[in-house]
Amino acid sequence: MKVIDQIREYFEGNSPVFFANLKTHVWLSSFSMILAMLVCIPLGIWISRRLKIANYIINAINIFRVIPSLAVLALAMPLLGVGFAPAAAALTLLAGPPILINTYIAFREINPAVKEAAYGMGMTPMQTIWKVELPLALPVMLAGIRTASVEIIASATLAVLIGGGGLGSYIINGVSMMSKSYLLIGAVPVAMLAILSEIAFSLLQRKTNYSH
Amino acid sequence: MSYLFDHPDKVMPFFWEHVRLTFTSLLIALCIALPLGFVIAKYRKLQAPVTSVLGIIYTIPSMALYAALIPYTGLGKTTAMIGLVAYAQMILVRNVVAAIQGIDPMMIEAAKGMGMSKRQIVFRIEVPLAVPVVLAGIRVATVSIISIGTVAAWIGAGGLGRLIYQGLNHDHTGKIVAGTVTIALLAIGADLLFRIVEKIFSPRTA
Question: Which domains does chain B have, with CATH numbers?
């Protein structure tokens, strides 16, 4: 039987299973991304105002970032057990560094004269962050979020190894069973998700860029 | 941790296998990336298509790329290395191009003005200025190869990833910890080593 027929046959009987896996994959990735953003964006803004602390934190993060994603995911199992939560925790840790580093750089690079002007107009520090700095920092921040999202969609494929579910299950089973159709049912949607998220964030990045 | 200290004889073969896999893939990747980067830096028309193709490959998650390759190239080291070389291309080519195009034309002009020959300009101006940027690319590529190589253990690449997968499959915490700690040390060590090499080769500006 041809591969395309096998895939069609799979979808005839099991399309709810596929969509459940797709949903888990997307939910796992977006949950981790949102959590990482909630922690790392404020942290990035905070350290951009404390350059001495920032140096230590950025250096530590650059070392952490080098550690392979599989190692971080695998280590979650003995520490946190199996399932969605350990997978989400590991993915959040992996999503953090690019978001934090880009937020920090984006806010650090803002021309001090712009901030000065905002204060001179009577804006409070909070207003300055929301109305002046954030819009200026957004393109660089989005570049970090884009990198993180592509990495997380890829790493979420490995989440199945610690019981996190997702589209990785097709690839893992496909290798075990040497089933071409299973491999493709997993690989094509994962690749599409990664490319789509790359394109979506690139467009958003271009839209928010004031300098053009 | 105890597994790592009690059975270093079982961990070290995986470690060396990983080092060999990384080194071989890096060498092959460089053999392709250096000429490719050089060509597209000179023929700018090729730059956009080549970098976008490499960018798309780079965006595809490693597991998905391997899943797509397995039906054609099977399980094992060859498939693993095809993937590793493909991912490294994007990083290496980008840095080779940046290294060549980043050289300030004024420098070349100044060298000419000082009466340097073409040969002297290449070896005493262009190469020393380009090497640190290329080395930075090699550093990032090495770390990526180490990382993706861990994943590639699933398709039979061997190395420390295999130890981690064994640990995950058999719920053997000792193996998981030994694998993750050793791979982390390998990645951090490689990063540090290349940072030092980069520093040695950076031109002193005073």
Answer: 2-201 (1.10.3720.10)
